[in-house]
Amino acid sequence: MSKGLKPTFLVQSFREKGRGLEADPPQTASDEAHALRKVERIAMGKAGAVAIRQDGHPGLGEFEEPVVLKVIGRVPPAFRELPF
């Protein structure tokens, strides 16, 4: 993480919709450990879920590329292509 950037932790789950996946509303986590616990819990009963960290300046709307912390189950290909 670059100096001065604030990490944001999100958990995104997906549900089956027809032949594809539909995103549920993203949920925030307080830190990396919380995001990892939350993705495990949220993934139950879902097609899949992903925990990510994104460093940036939220007040300015400037963010670096997201980093995947953990993927469980089926998620859109774009999430599998992000760096781990």
Features:
single chain; about 80 residues; alpha+beta; six-stranded antiparallel beta sheet; 2 helices; about 45% strand; globular
Notes on the structure:
With 84 residues, the chain is an alpha+beta fold. It has one domain. 19% of the residues lie in helices and 45% in strands. Strands 1, 2, 3, 4, 5 and 6 form a 6-stranded antiparallel beta sheet that branches. The protein is globular and about 40 Å long. The two termini are 13 Å apart. The model has no long low-confidence stretch (mean pLDDT 92).
Write the layout of secondary structure elements.
Elements: E1 6-17, E2 20-23, E3 27-29, H1 32-43, E4 48-57, E5 62-63, E6 67-73, H2 77-80
Antiparallel strand pairs: 1-2, 1-3, 1-4, 4-5, 4-6
Compute the average pLDDT. 92
Instruction: Show unreliable segments.
Output: none
Class from helix and strand fractions: alpha+beta
Total domain count: 1
Radius of gyration: 13 Å
Report the sheet with the most strands, covering strand number, pairing sense and barrel closure. Answer: 6 strands, antiparallel
Which percent range describes the beta-strand content? over 45%
Termini separation comes to 13 Å
- By DSSP, the count of extended strands is 6
- Overall spatial form: globular
Tell me the helix content.
10-25%
Number of helices: 2
Q: How would you spell out the order of helices and strands?
A: EEEHEEEH
